TrEMBL record:
Domain of life: Bacteria
Cited InterPro entries: AdhesinB (IPR006129), Bact_metal-bind_prot9 (IPR050492), ZnuA-like (IPR006127)
Organism listed in the record: Methylobacterium iners
One Pfam family here: ZnuA
Taxonomic placement: Bacteria, Pseudomonadati, Pseudomonadota, Alphaproteobacteria, Hyphomicrobiales
Protein name as catalogued: Zinc ABC transporter substrate-binding protein
Length: 314
């Protein structure tokens, strides 16, 4: 009789699912994925999607290819934040516009019942300083350099914290999330070994960057950033600065200029023509070049492009 009862329950469940499907209503699994997690950048979206295993819906405020440090809020973003079960941010002034958005939706405090996850608190930061965002031209990084996701090893801690936070939002999916995080971590570790091997012949190579996005990347792959083209974040270089920088590049034998797609290209080209260094367009975020389709692909692209440019400049 127990077997017959169990069989009847299974039949009833199948029939109910069939009715919901015919009516165009979501099944339980589909409804579960409608739990919303909002992140500030495409990089965080890629990592969160990877470690959540489809347990939640993930939306990024900054769209692929956009400059997060020049982000402009829209009314639709208020609704996203209001509906989010979890909000994940970079911190360190990089996504400081989120604070205004949180105030508009009633979250005046930085953390409210664990709903806001700032990933910068578990990272070994570079360029730590006491400096506030300046109200003049350009923009300043906050208490430290915020581009820590560009060291792929930092994604180990980032993904673990995201998985833990998502697991609190949908505790019934914790096993799925744990398995997804392990898969991501395993793939990350394997590919990091390959990236290090590809760039190892160029350890100590002198390079210049347009924007101060790359200290974590340079530390991981043992590259030497000798100078920046911008005199201050968001401020274009003067002709006098470019002339002086060209001299420093020749003296240090800088072999590559790291350039992001949304930065003005003329200063980098000017320096390349006068020093022989190669301009390398790298993806500072997922989607900023077409090939950087997710977080791991971002490093596939950047490592390959930089290795080719450094080899050509030898």
């Amino acid at each position: 009789m127990a077997c017959l009862a169990g069989w009847a329950q299974r039949c009833a469940a199948i029939l109910a699912a069939l009715v919901l499907t015919l009516a165009g209503l979501p099944l339980v699994e589909e409804a579960r994925a409608e739990v919303l997690v909002v992140v500030t950048t495409p990089d965080l979206k890629s990592i969160t999607e990877a470690v959540s295993g489809g347990a939640v819906r993930v939306e990024s405020l900054v769209q692929p290819g956009a400059d997060a440090e020049a982000f402009v809020l829209r009314p639709s973003h208020v609704a996203l934040i209001r509906d989010a079960a979890l909000v994940v941010r970079i911190g360190l002034g990089y996504d400081e516009w989120l604070d205004k958005l949180l105030r508009q939706t009633g979250d005046a405090r930085p953390v409210r019942e664990g709903r806001i996850l700032d990933l910068s608190t578990d990272i070994a930061l570079l360029e730590v300083q006491s400096r506030s965002i300046e109200a003049r031209s350009g923009h300043a990084h906050g208490a430290a350099n915020p581009h820590y996701w560009l060291d792929p090893e930092n994604a180990e801690a980032m993904s673990a914290r995201i998985a833990e936070a998502v697991g609190r939002v949908v505790p019934e999916m914790k096993n799925t999330i744990t398995a997804a995080q392990v898969r991501f971590s395993t793939d990350l570790t394997r590919r990091l070994k390959g990236w290090v091997a590809t760039l190892s012949p160029f350890q100590g190579a002198a390079i210049v960057a347009y924007h101060n996005s790359w200290p974590y990347f340079a530390r991981r792959f043992r590259l030497n950033i000798v100078d920046l083209i911008e005199p201050k974040e968001g401020v274009a270089p003067s002709p006098a600065r470019l002339a002086s920088l060209a001299g420093r590049m020749r003296a240090s034998r800088a072999r590559a200029i790291l350039h992001e797609p949304f930065e003005p290209l003329e200063p980098s080209r000017y320096l390349a023509e006068r020093t022989g260094a190669r301009v390398v367009v790298l993806a500072s975020s997922v989607g900023s070049v077409p090939e950087a389709t997710d977080y791991l692909a971002l490093f596939d692209v950047n490592v390959d492009r930089l290795a080719k440019a450094l080899a050509e400049a030898q």
